[in-house]
């Protein structure tokens, strides 16, 4: 955020070699071995891109990461609301955005060549392919250029079409530690997920941890 406040240019990139206590959603930590994974913060100047809400910046970066993974490894991660990428229902990437007057910073971590035991890396998902964090970043940036040219309405449509959560039976853990179970039926233009429970009650969720429930 300091780089943004100091006047860093649109599409500035800050890349880390490793993380021992990276910040994730819901105050979780994100760790990575030295040199193994993509760990970057991307800066967007709001006066140099189409006016759009904060959540669309994370959606844009998430879609770019998924498409870059597909291009380089042949494996397309699933997008889980609001901003996680999964392979075989295990997390391969997480995204977090922060906004300030005049700019937005989106941080993303992608497990390229290493993952903790409960997660997945691209190297594990596609052992015959080889890629590097830098190659993944370069591919992502070219996709971001394409997505950034879309209107907010067009981007919302592409995000909704890409989101594996929609149509799934899900369990959502709320910040209050309460749980909601039902079917994810829609993402609204404000980014909220709509879950229809078994009593036909619609829940409009802006923050929560979603689990895709798989048939046993």
General description of the model:
With 216 residues, the protein is of the alpha+beta class. The chain has two domains: 2-162, 2-Layer Sandwich (BirA Bifunctional Protein, domain 2), CATH 3.30.930; 169-212, Roll (SH3 type barrels). 25% of the residues lie in helices and 33% in strands. It is built from five helices and 13 strands. A six-stranded antiparallel β-sheet has the order 1-4-8-7-6-5, covered by helices on one side. Strands 12-11-10-9-13 form a five-stranded antiparallel β-sheet, with no helix packed on it. The chain is globular, with a radius of gyration of 17 Å. The model has no long low-confidence stretch (mean pLDDT 91).
What does this entry show, briefly?
This protein is of the alpha+beta class and 216 residues long.
What's the SSE blueprint?
Blueprint: H1 2-5, E1 13-15, E2 19-23, E3 29-32, E4 38-45, H2 54-73, E5 78-80, E6 84-87, E7 90-100, E8 103-110, H3 122-125, H4 133-148, H5 152-162, E9 169-173, E10 179-187, E11 193-196, E12 202-205, E13 209-212
Helix pairs in contact: 2-4, 2-5
């Amino acid at each position: 955020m300091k780089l943004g406040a100091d006047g860093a240019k649109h599409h500035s990139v800050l890349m880390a070699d490793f993380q021992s206590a990276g910040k994730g959603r819901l105050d979780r930590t994100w760790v990575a071995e030295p040199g193994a994974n993509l760990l970057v913060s991307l800066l967007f100047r709001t006066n140099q891109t189409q006016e759009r809400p904060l959540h669309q910046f994370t959606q844009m970066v998430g879609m770019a990461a998924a498409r870059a993974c597909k291009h380089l490894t042949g494996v397309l991660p699933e997008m889980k609301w609001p901003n996680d990428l999964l392979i075989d229902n295990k997390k391969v990437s997480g995204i977090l955005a922060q906004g300030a007057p005049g700019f937005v910073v989106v941080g993303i971590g992608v497990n390229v060549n290493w993952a903790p035991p409960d997660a997945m890396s691209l190297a594990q998902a596609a052992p015959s392919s080889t890629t590097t964090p830098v190659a993944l970043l370069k591919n992502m940036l070219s996709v971001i250029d394409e997505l950034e040219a879309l209107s907010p309405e067009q981007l919302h449509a592409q995000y909704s079409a890409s989101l594996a959560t929609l149509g799934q039976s899900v369990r959502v853990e709320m910040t209050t530690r309460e749980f909601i179970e039902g079917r994810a039926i829609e993402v609204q233009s404000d980014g909220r997920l709509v879950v229809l429970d078994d009593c036909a009650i619609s829940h409009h969720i802006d923050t929560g941890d979603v689990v895709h429930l798989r048939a046993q």
